[in-house]
């Protein structure tokens, strides 16, 4: 079996740059190296070619090479070390608890990490049929956001929320902000709801948003968040990059067989209603 290709391709095998495309040469080199890191794959700590080798490989000046490497560093894909060259960086791992609704910022903070949110789109649009049923309305905002961990995109979120409940949402309000926190500020207290996780592959649009390549496996989390009274507050799809770990607290149940699931559901609903009433009383007392 022949050895696989390395990042330091010989000059005669180097991908050709298109000098007439209008795309800056440093951006073309950055994208070529990006594909090599994703497709080979190069493991964390693997050395990239030196600046001199890249100059010879692509036939460009050192300043162009340095711009390309800076672009990779900005994406969190490499670490540049003085006197040691550039190495592939380990992707930061996002950990989230599957049974916990929301609170992704708090979960990241518990691991010493900080999430950043960038709003890509917010406009009035009807949700898919499943979302309209979950929210009991077609009059919704459609919101697209990307979540970043250490400058690396880790999740792309597409969310629908009822416009009559949140008429004043703007991209500026949601930028680097928690949607659930904004809901609480408007007097709606998210309680949770059913979720499901499935493995999917990235289409070209998702690949671009998550800084990966088409066909890359992703984890799709889909569900609805309701308040304590069962009113739908959001219906969402969240595509997670492969560097996401879902933690599940699995327990062995010892409940008597005579207790039906319907009875448990009614008890949970009653508990949620009581919690909502207590929260409202506490708010008025303040």
UniProtKB/TrEMBL annotation:
GO terms for biological process: negative regulation of DNA-templated transcription. The keyword Transcription regulation applies. The keyword DNA-binding applies. Keywords: DNA-binding, Transcription, Transcription regulation. Transmembrane segments: none annotated. SMART domains: HTH_GNTR, UTRA. InterPro entries: Bact_HTH_transcr_reg (IPR050679), Chorismate_lyase_/UTRA_dom_sf (IPR028978), Tscrpt_reg_HTH_GntR (IPR000524), UTRA (IPR011663), WH-like_DNA-bd_sf (IPR036388), WH_DNA-bd_sf (IPR036390). Pfam families: GntR, UTRA. SUPFAM superfamilies: Chorismate lyase-like (SSF64288), Winged helix' DNA-binding domain (SSF46785). Residues 23-91 form the HTH gntR-type domain. Coiled coil: none annotated. Residues 1-22 are annotated as: Disordered. One of its GO terms (molecular function) is DNA binding. PROSITE patterns: HTH_GNTR. This is Transcription regulator, GntR family. The lineage of its organism: Bacteria, Bacillati, Actinomycetota, Actinomycetes, Micrococcales.
């Amino acid at each position: 079996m022949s050895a696989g290709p390395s990042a330091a391709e010989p000059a005669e095998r180097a991908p050709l740059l298109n000098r007439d495309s209008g795309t800056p040469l440093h951006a073309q080199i950055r994208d070529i190296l990006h594909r090599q890191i994703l497709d080979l794959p190069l493991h964390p700590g693997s050395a990239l070619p030196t600046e001199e080798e890249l100059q010879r490989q692509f036939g460009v000046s050192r300043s162009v090479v340095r711009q390309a490497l800076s672009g990779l560093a900005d994406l969190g894909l490499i670490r540049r070390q003085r006197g040691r060259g550039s190495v592939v960086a380990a992707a930061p791992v996002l950990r989230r608890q599957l049974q916990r609704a929301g609170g992704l910022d708090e979960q990241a903070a518990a691991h010493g990490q900080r999430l950043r949110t960038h709003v890509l789109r917010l406009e009035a649009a009807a949700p898919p049929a499943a979302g309209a049923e979950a929210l009991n309305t077609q009059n919704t905002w459609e919101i697209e956001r990307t979540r970043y961990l250490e400058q690396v995109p880790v999740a792309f979120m597409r969310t629908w929320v009822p416009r009559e409940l949140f008429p004043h949402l703007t991209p500026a309000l949601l930028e680097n902000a928690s949607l659930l926190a904004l809901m609480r500020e408007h007097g709606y207290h998210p309680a949770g709801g059913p979720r499901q996780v499935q493995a999917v592959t990235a289409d070209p649009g998702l690949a671009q948003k998550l800084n990966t390549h088409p066909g890359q496996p992703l984890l799709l989390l889909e569900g609805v968040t309701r308040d304590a009274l069962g009113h739908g507050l959001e219906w969402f799809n969240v595509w997670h990059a492969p560097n996401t770990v879902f933690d599940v607290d699995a327990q062995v149940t010892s409940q008597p067989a005579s207790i039906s699931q319907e009875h448990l559901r009614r008890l949970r609903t009653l508990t949620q209603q009581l919690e909502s009433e207590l929260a409202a009383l506490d708010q008025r007392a303040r």
